[in-house]
TrEMBL record:
Keyword Transcription regulation carried by entry: yes
Protein name: Helix-turn-helix domain-containing protein
GO-annotated biological processes: negative regulation of DNA-templated transcription
Single GO MF descriptor: DNA binding
Domain HTH iclR-type intervals: 10-71
Pfam families: HTH_IclR
Transcription regulation keyword on record: yes
Keyword set, alphabetical order: Transcription, Transcription regulation
Length: 219
């Protein structure tokens, strides 16, 4: 309660969903107080939201007692664009290990893009995590611009898009459009540490080839 009256059910649901989005976007586990601050809610209200989400396995605690996304979300996510995930996963795995970079697929959701599935390279000394469910504005980053090409039906001078330090400081990305009939506009991308010596053109070409292979699975 905030003023002595029960909260409207839809408001409570919205707050719970927002809490999951905040945890998904966080770079590390959050305390109840930190989550409350980011939600702009009183600590006691945030605690009740968290307890409800914990009860459904959507939020869990790490060893220090801070909040992380729960395994229950993986169960819910299995059927989200499941055929696209299934088709993309083999190619993502090959690309990640071949290039030594985290490879991922993003999809359009309203005016944001959301990471659908990602694969980290096996043998890399240091990798960049790109967790499923991570979202950011459509206008920022290479995957967002690649998706905008599909939405606007624009070709572009090159078959790929690049970005440096736009979404997360210190990280760069290369992405290509992934146009799958019957699915939201998507992009296939890799992310790596800014400053690493990479052949962007070769990466873009490799991603374009992989996107073509994924599309063939839907023909």
């Amino acid at each position: 309660m905030t003023d002595g009256r029960p909260e409207a059910p839809l408001q409570t649901l919205s707050r719970g969903i927002t809490a999951l989005e905040v945890l998904a976007a966080a770079d590390e586990a959050l305390s109840i107080g930190e989550l409350a601050t980011r939600l702009g809610l009183h600590r006691s209200i945030t605690y009740r939201i968290v307890r409800t989400l914990e009860g459904h396995g959507l939020v869990a605690r790490d060893a220090a007692g801070d909040l992380v996304l729960g395994a229950g979300l993986a169960t819910l996510a299995r059927n989200v664009s499941r055929d696209l995930q299934t088709a993309a996963l083999p190619e993502l795995t090959v690309i990640a290990n071949e290039l030594g970079m985290t490879a991922f697929v993003t999809v359009l959701d309203a005016q944001e893009i959301v990471t659908l599935v990602s694969v980290e390279p096996r043998a890399a000394v240091a990798t960049v995590a790109q967790r499923p469910g991570t979202r950011h504005a459509l206008e920022r980053g290479a995957p967002g611009r690649a998706i905008q090409r599909l939405v606007k039906r624009e070709a572009g001078e090159l078959p790929y898009e690049t970005s440096h330090d736009e979404v997360t400081p210190g990280l760069s990305s290369v992405a290509v459009p992934l146009d799958i009939p019957g699915h939201p506009a998507a992009a296939l991308a890799v992310v790596y540490l800014t400053g690493n010596a990479v052949d962007v053109a070769s990466i873009g070409t490799r991603l374009f080839e992989a996107a073509e292979l994924i599309r063939k699975d839907f023909r």
